[in-house]
């Protein structure tokens, strides 16, 4: 599959500089990091959340677990995890569990965990379980410039 078409068009429209890193198929962002021999701290994963108005995409390192209570308190969001069915409906051109962590291209509000800001480069799920998109932190920051930020994860 490679990069999801919606994500690929978004990257082109933003004139994003990136590399595609193919790897053996995996079942999680952390396993993708291991397959590519990169730190899980540098792989941004997306967690789809539901609130009373719709959906929010939380972005955090693959090596971290989301702390919903922290997110609720810091950002004033009353969120819960979206169901697999909801995720499939929102990301029809992606494989479940390989959502690109850029909410804007799917029309979703986004919140970025502060811990990803410490990384000089970022790897993103591309929409399948065998592709990562690699870019500089500056490029990733420009793609998430409109996102809210907070500290809502803990290292696993």
Strands, helices and their partners?
Layout lengths: L4 H9 L5 E4 L6 H8 L6 E8 L4 E7 L2 E3 L1 H8 L4 E2 L2 H7 L18 E5 L7 E5 L5 E6 H7 L4 E3 L2 E3 L1
Parallel strand pairs: 2-7, 3-6, 6-9
Antiparallel strand pairs: 1-8, 2-3, 2-5, 4-10, 7-8
Keywords:
single chain; 156 residues; alpha/beta; 8-stranded mixed β-sheet; two-stranded antiparallel sheet; 5 helices; 29% strand
Rg, Cα atoms, Å? 14 Å
Number of strands: 10
How far from one another are the termini?
Answer: 29 Å
Helix content: 25-40%
Determine the structural class based on helices, strands and strand pairing.
Answer: alpha/beta
Number of helical runs?
5
Q: Give a quick account of the main beta sheet: strands, pairing sense, barrel closure.
A: 8 strands, mixed
- Order of helix and strand elements from N to C terminus: HEHEEEHEHEEEHEE
What's the average pLDDT?
Answer: 93
Spans of at least 5 consecutive residues with low confidence: none
Percent strand equals 25-35%
Shape: globular
What does this structure look like?
- The protein is of the alpha/beta class.
- It is built from 5 helices and 10 strands, in the order αβαβββαβαβββαββ.
- The protein has helices spanning 5-13, 29-36, 68-75, 84-90, 137-143, and strands at residues 19-22, 43-50, 55-61, 64-66, 80-81, 109-113, 121-125, 131-136, 148-150, 153-155.
- The strands form 2 sheets. Strands 1, 2, 3, 5, 6, 7, 8 and 9 form an 8-stranded mixed beta sheet that branches. A two-stranded antiparallel ribbon has the order 4-10.
- A hairpin with a 5-residue loop joins strand 7 (121-125) and strand 8 (131-136).
- The longest helix has 9 residues, at 5-13.
- The chain starts with a helix and ends with a strand.
């Amino acid at each position: 599959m490679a990069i999801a078409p919606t994500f690929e068009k978004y990257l082109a429209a933003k004139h994003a500089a990136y590399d595609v890193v193919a790897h053996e198929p995996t079942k999680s962002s952390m396993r993708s990091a291991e397959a590519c021999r990169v730190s899980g701290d540098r792989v941004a994963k997306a967690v789809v959340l539901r609130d009373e108005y719709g959906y929010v995409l939380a972005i955090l390192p693959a090596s971290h677990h989301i702390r919903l209570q922290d997110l609720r308190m810091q950002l004033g969001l009353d969120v819960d995890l979206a169901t697999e069915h909801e995720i499939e409906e929102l990301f029809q051109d992606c494989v479940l569990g390989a959502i690109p962590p850029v909410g804007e291209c799917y029309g979703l509000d986004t919140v970025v965990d502060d811990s990803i800001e410490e990384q000089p480069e970022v790897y993103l799920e591309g929409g399948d379980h065998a592709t990562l998109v690699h870019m500089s932190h500056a490029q990733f920051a420009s793609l998430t410039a409109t996102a809210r930020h907070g500290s809502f994860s803990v290292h696993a």
